Amino acid sequence: MNGSEIFVGVDGGATKTLAVAAKRDGLIIGVGEAGPSNYHLVGLEGAVTNINAAIKEAIKGANIDKADVVTLGLAGMDTKRDFVVFEREAAPKVAGKIVYVRHDAEIALVGATLGSPGVIVIAGTGSVAGARNRKGEYSRCGGWGHLVGDEGSAYFIAKEALRAILWAYDGRGAPTALTEEILRALSIESPEDIISKVYVERMSVRDLARLAPLVTEAARRGDSVALQIVEESARQLALHVVSLVKKLKMMEEQPIKVALVGGVFRAGNVIVDPFRRFLEKHFAVEIVKPELPPAVGALLLSYILHGEELSGSLLNNIKNSLQDFSSRV
Could you tell me if residue 277 is left (phi over 0), alpha (psi between -120 and 50 degrees) or otherwise beta? Predict the structure, then answer.
């Protein structure tokens, strides 16, 4: 196997780094896992150490020290400065002869659509969207954090629910079943106690986001306040897509594939239906389930960026050989 080209895709996040290695024909030869590689959390050296540990575990069966082509899809690559810093100071130390650095939403999108043009919306604790057009041009929207962004996310839904409970308590808003359910979930007796939870105990973003399923469930049961919150979340997420379609001039690519990822969308039709309705005011869409995980999306990008065609045989080889590693990817 020494003489064959080895392609690697890396999904580097805030909790772990996953690498998938394959031969030129798409047959996967190994998977590697290591600690986080968001350089804002572990520093540039820590990120490189974990990236290389994952890559070397993935390629160990090939008896080589470096992969031929590596694509890194990294969390924390949110600004142009991030890319400049990482590409200058970290990428040259990565175990790859050719190394591409990409935003983690882009690798998730390529995995979701198998490299076809489209948009991915990721709505978990936070929110972000990314899109690629027919020319291979990529852009992202959102992902600016909970203080100034993350519209439509689980955190956004939970924060709006707390606001609605307090408005109802003040008499500024309509009564809602959310009051009883969220007070119970927070183990408090009065809406006034929300202040202590949020400002004194300093509930974390994740702790707040965990309240979101209570809101989507109340919306499913027909609570009008919860429905308004969920529909506004759907509208905000849809605005990400509309912005990207305009920015990348994708109107001629209808129906536009839109892949949905993250815990918010696990609520199902109660949020997906208003999301779809809002988009359909602007263009035809096809809501798709992600085909492959982000690490494999990064692997596909390695082929694409290296000028290789994503042929049917290559994709079939990847899908079939991935089954041997499905418990790890």
Answer: alpha
Domain spanning 115-290: CATH 3.30.420.40: yes
Q: What is the DSSP letter of 228?
A: H
Superfamily designation of domain 6-114+291-325: ATPase, nucleotide binding domain (3.30.420.40)
Question: What pLDDT is stored for residue 3 in this prediction?
Answer: 41
Q: Determine the Cα–Cα distance for residues 142 and 237; give it in Å rounded to an integer.
A: 9
Q: Residue 129: name the closest of 108, 111, 114, 147 by CA.
A: 108
Equal fold, 6-114+291-325 vs 115-290? yes
Name every residue whose Cβ is closer than 8 Å to that of residue 252 and which is 6 or more positions away in sequence: none
Q: Show me where the domains of the chain are located.
A: 6-114+291-325, 115-290
Instruction: Please write down the HEC assignment for all residues of 127-191.
Output: EEEEEECCCCCEEEEECCCCCCCCCCCHHHHHHHHHHHHHHHHHCCCCCCCHHHHHHHHCCCCCC
pLDDT of 4 strictly over 80: no
Answer yes or no: pTM beyond 0.85. yes
Give the mean model confidence (pLDDT) for residues 172-193: 96
Contact 154, 212 (CB under 8 A): yes
Burial pattern 269-299, b for ≥16 Cβ within 10 A else e, equals ebbbebbbebbeebbebebbebbbbbbbbbb
What are the C-alpha distances in Å from 166 to residues 161, 163, 282? 9, 5, 35
CA dist list (Å): 42 to 16, 38, 51, 125? 11, 6, 12, 21
The 8-class DSSP code of residue 306 comes to T
DSSP assignments along 62-103, one per residue: GT-SSEEEEEEEETT--SHHHHHHHHHHTGGGSSEEEEEEEE
The more confidently predicted of residues 31 and 3 is 31
